[in-house]
């Protein structure tokens, strides 16, 4: 069977094909086309469209396409069920859902950066999800720091040597530069790994220190807030549709935009905009 979705995949449009080929349709042909061509090409090729708004196999509420496929095809494999919140967290910028979500996002963003050909990217992504599946099935309880002395060293470092933020200290230069970089690229995919490279700062340090200088928000929370603030600015211009605003502010699709917008404002985007334009 043919399965079709929009081009330039990162998370869900790699994870879902992996799930389809490994558990649903081993002979599946995955097709990537421009967003505007998905439905017309699906009809002409007799293909199943997925991970776009308005089709069956897509996001619902807080869940992504990977979740829907698991439910629809009644996949009960424990390793796949363990992978689901990792994929969901990475795909919806909810890295708090699973400790591995931010790592999956970083790897996926890096792959998409390195490979321009979507099918080559899918081939590499299949290896990543095969590895994640093996971890979920066999290695979830393994730790890298297995030796007792390693745990002791980590404990001693955190207790006596880990630097503490001084009260009343000003935002350091790297944090100010990072703030400006985020504002300049709020409409594109952002990851701490890519930003840390531009800043020449260790990504682990950046992740650890971020909330101290950004209103006690995690990187994902801060990005989502900035995107919502930018969306509200764009809503003041009637020339932009809500679909256009969702993509201009870096959301994966309008349903994702609507969910996050409602979380931050308590209203649907359409209702909020209507009230905004009345003022």
From TrEMBL:
<dbReference type="InterPro" id="IPR020449">
    <property type="entry name" value="Tscrpt_reg_AraC-type_HTH"/>
</dbReference>
<feature type="domain" description="HTH araC/xylS-type">
    <location>
        <begin position="176"/>
        <end position="275"/>
    </location>
</feature>
<dbReference type="GO" id="GO:0043565">
    <property type="term" value="F:sequence-specific DNA binding"/>
</dbReference>
<dbReference type="GO" id="GO:0003700">
    <property type="term" value="F:DNA-binding transcription factor activity"/>
</dbReference>
<dbReference type="Pfam" id="PF12833">
    <property type="entry name" value="HTH_18"/>
</dbReference>
<dbReference type="InterPro" id="IPR018062">
    <property type="entry name" value="HTH_AraC-typ_CS"/>
</dbReference>
<protein>
    <recommendedName>
        <fullName>HTH araC/xylS-type domain-containing protein</fullName>
    </recommendedName>
</protein>
<dbReference type="InterPro" id="IPR009057">
    <property type="entry name" value="Homeodomain-like_sf"/>
</dbReference>
<dbReference type="InterPro" id="IPR018060">
    <property type="entry name" value="HTH_AraC"/>
</dbReference>
<dbReference type="Pfam" id="PF09828">
    <property type="entry name" value="ChrB_C"/>
</dbReference>
<keyword id="KW-0805">Transcription regulation</keyword>
<keyword id="KW-0804">Transcription</keyword>
<keyword id="KW-0238">DNA-binding</keyword>
<dbReference type="InterPro" id="IPR018634">
    <property type="entry name" value="ChrB_C"/>
</dbReference>
């Amino acid at each position: 069977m043919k399965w079709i979705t929009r081009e330039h995949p990162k998370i869900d449009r790699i994870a879902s094909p992996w799930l389809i080929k490994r558990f649903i349709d081993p002979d599946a042909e995955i097709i990537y086309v421009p967003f505007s061509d998905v439905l017309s090409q699906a009809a002409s090729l007799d293909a199943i469209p997925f991970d776009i708004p308005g089709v069956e196999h897509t996001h619902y509420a807080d869940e992504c396409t990977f979740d829907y496929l698991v439910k629809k095809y009644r996949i009960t494999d424990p390793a796949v069920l363990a992978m689901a919140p990792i994929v969901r967290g990475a795909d919806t910028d909810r890295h708090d859902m699973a400790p591995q979500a931010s790592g999956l996002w970083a790897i996926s963003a890096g792959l998409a950066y390195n490979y321009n050909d979507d099918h080559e990217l899918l081939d590499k992504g299949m290896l990543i999800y095969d590895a994640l599946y093996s971890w979920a099935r066999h290695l979830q309880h393994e730790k890298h720091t297995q030796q007792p002395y390693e745990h002791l060293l980590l404990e001693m470092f955190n207790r006596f040597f880990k630097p503490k933020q001084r009260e009343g200290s000003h935002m350091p230069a790297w944090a100010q530069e990072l703030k400006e970089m985020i504002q300049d690229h709020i409409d594109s995919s952002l990851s701490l790994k890519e930003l840390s490279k531009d800043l020449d700062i260790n990504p682990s340090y950046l992740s650890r220190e971020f909330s101290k200088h950004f209103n006690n928000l995690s990187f994902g929370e801060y990005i989502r807030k900035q995107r919502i603030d930018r969306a509200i600015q764009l809503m003041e211009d009637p020339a932009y549709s809500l679909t256009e605003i969702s993509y201009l502010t870096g959301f994966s699709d309008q349903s994702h935009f609507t969910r996050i917008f409602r979380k931050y404002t308590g209203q649907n985007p359409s209702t909020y905009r209507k009230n905004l334009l009345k003022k």
